[in-house]
Amino acid sequence: MLAVYVHGLRKFYGDFEALKGISFTVKEGEIFGLIGPNGSGKTTTLRILVTILKPDGGEVKIFDFDVVKDASKVREIISYLPEEADLYRRLTGYENILFFAKMYSVSAEKVKRMIDFGIKLSGLGNRIHDKTETYSKGMRRRPALARTLMLKPKLAILDEPTAGLDVYASVKVRETIKVFVLEKKREEPWKHYLLLLLQD
Q: What is the CATH number of the domain that holds 53?
């Protein structure tokens, strides 16, 4: 099964055609990068994939679910990190992860598992208990990414996860992604994982 199927995708903003019939596929288990200059429609494409925007033409499916007709099903199997994602600055890194874990589950056991994995993904050590207003931009990005990946989604969609970060912070973000991939492979070696990355 294809993880992502996009055929003839079109999107208009008024008279401006942002997407002009683009097509691509992503295989299950593939790590895929969508690359292009600013203004080429990358973020618009991802927002359609995650059901935030509706396409004006073409067909888009996530694991065979149509993003328009089956939007609720798509949302159950994906997680999304927008480029502008940030944390609640007056909360600690731990409290941010706890807040989002409780948003996604009412099971205390599942919440604990998500929190433990989120802390591991963040790689912040004892700084996880400091208020995020004291974090650098690169440090804030890591728990933001962790709260996206701790759900262990079937499809993770990351919009420019290293945008605006220095080299060291970018390396740390990539390490977070690597931890996620290795954990998925360890827990579910018989299944494929998929990570969709958007880089400039």
A: 3.40.50.300
